[in-house]
Design a protein that fits this description.
Chain lengths: 165, 259
């Protein structure tokens, strides 16, 4: 086994140790200490960037959700406001119409009662006229038939008794 | 090769001197085939990592591959140690990638291009160095963070008082065995795999040398097995690098969080 038999030779171990020290030293200081941290930093930076981007995307998603929510709330509120305005307007219109109707009603009532009063007045005056005419006619009739002159007042009372029972 | 027509399955593990460099005391430091493949592994790793340094927000294929490796190790550190493990990710990542690269280069069919491939991690000097390095870091981190309280590692929570004379001894032994098991596991797995492949390859060569009938009878099943074993060895190359890194992270977890 040369690994053991060569060990006895004076140059073997010294050369092996010298060169492994040199080459492994190069690998450790240049590659391990020099290059590896930079590569790890690149990987870390990438991982961080991916994580940050994911977080940003999540935040944007949440913001969009919130925006949609506020939009929905706003649209709900405005729809409710519009509905309220419509019902208010309807109510107001109905109330106005009622008021106007009531006013017109009252006017009509007034007119009706005035007309009734006129009619009553006309009727009483007509009645009074009829009474006097009837009394006159009755006096004339009595005078013609019996020749008795009846006083106008008596005729009037008799006619009144007959007319009003 | 020992004899003509014989394949020595151990020959592949021989380190060859390419040129001498300098002396440290009595010891000569040379540039060897092993050193060359370590340099190649380091450079390949560097080129691979440069492809992941574009730092784009939306990564390309290469960057995804590099980030896959870094993410694998930092995920493992995070799972085994927690957020405090991040500090040690560069070390464990370097360890994992270096071992993985050496294992895979050792398996690469470079012989086809006339290059002599060599598995650096099949030498316990290398795996031992890395294991002792990991173990030293565990010790330093442990005593640095917890001081002498680090010894409470040898008394697991819930130990009954009448076993206090035994459990710490067992725990201490298992703790001290760690660098050896760490080093030997990788060294043995790599060596055994490559020996196995070489043995099956020698079956094919010896079979052909013994004539066409034996050559076909032995060669075809051996070849089929070698295809399967090569795939298995690729898996082992990855798993052993992973096990080394995983155990290092678990030992570091002991040092950082105690039990």
């Amino acid at each position: 086994m040369p690994q053991i038999s060569q060990f006895a030779e004076s140059w073997y171990a010294a050369s092996q140790i010298f060169w492994v020290l040199l080459t492994f030293g190069f690998v450790f200081f240049v590659i391990g200490r020099g290059m590896l941290p930079k590569i790890e930093a690149t990987v870390d930076a990438r991982d961080r960037k991916v994580a940050d981007d994911l977080a940003a995307a999540k935040a944007a998603h949440a913001a969009a959700d919130k925006l949609e929510e506020t939009y929905r709330q706003q649209s709900d509120a405005s729809r409710a406001a519009a509905q309220k305005a419509v019902t208010d307007a309807k109510d107001k219109a109905a109330k106005d119409a009622e008021k106007r109707l009531a006013k017109v009603d009252a006017e009509l009532d007034d007119k009706l009662s005035a007309a009734e009063a006129d009619i009553n007045a006309a009727r009483t005056s007509a009645m009074a006229e009829i009474e006097s005419v009837a009394a006159e006619a009755a006096g004339d009739l009595v005078a013609k038939l019996s020749g008795v002159k009846v006083a106008a007042a008596d005729a009037k009372a008799a006619v009144k008794a007959v007319l009003h029972g | 090769m020992a004899d003509q027509g014989k394949v020595d399955p151990m020959h592949q593990f021989e380190v060859q001197k390419m040129f001498d460099m300098f002396h440290v005391g009595n010891h000569e430091v040379a540039f060897t085939t092993s050193a060359m493949w370590m340099v190649v592994a380091g450079l390949l790793l560097w080129v691979f990592m440069i492809g992941g340094m574009k730092r784009q927000l939306v990564p390309g294929r290469w960057q995804v591959a590099v980030e896959g490796f870094t993410g694998f190790i930092s995920g493992m550190m995070n799972a085994n140690i927690g957020p405090e493990g991040r500090k040690y990710t560069p070390y464990v990542f370097s360890l994992f990638m270096f071992i993985l690269m050496l294992n895979v280069i050792g398996l690469a069919p470079l012989g086809l291009f006339g290059v002599h491939p060599f598995t650096v991690t099949s030498h316990f000097t290398i795996t031992g160095f890395l294991a002792i390095l990991s173990f030293s870091i565990v010790l330093i981190v442990g005593f640095w963070r917890h001081g002498l309280h680090f010894f409470s590692l040898f008394v697991p929570r819930g130990t009954p008082w009448w076993l206090l004379w035994l459990i710490p001894v067992i725990e201490l032994v298992s703790f001290l065995v760690r660098p050896f098991s760490l080093a030997l596991r990788l060294f043995v797995a790599m060596t055994a795999g490559h020996v196995l492949m070489k043995v099956f390859a020698s079956f094919i060569i010896d079979g052909i040398a013994a004539g066409p009938a034996v050559g076909l009878g032995v060669g075809i099943p051996s070849m089929a097995l070698m295809v399967g074993i090569s795939g298995l060895e690729l898996l082992v190359a990855g798993i052993q690098a992973y096990v080394f890194a995983l155990l290092t992270s678990l030992y570091l977890n002991d040092a950082i969080n105690l039990h």
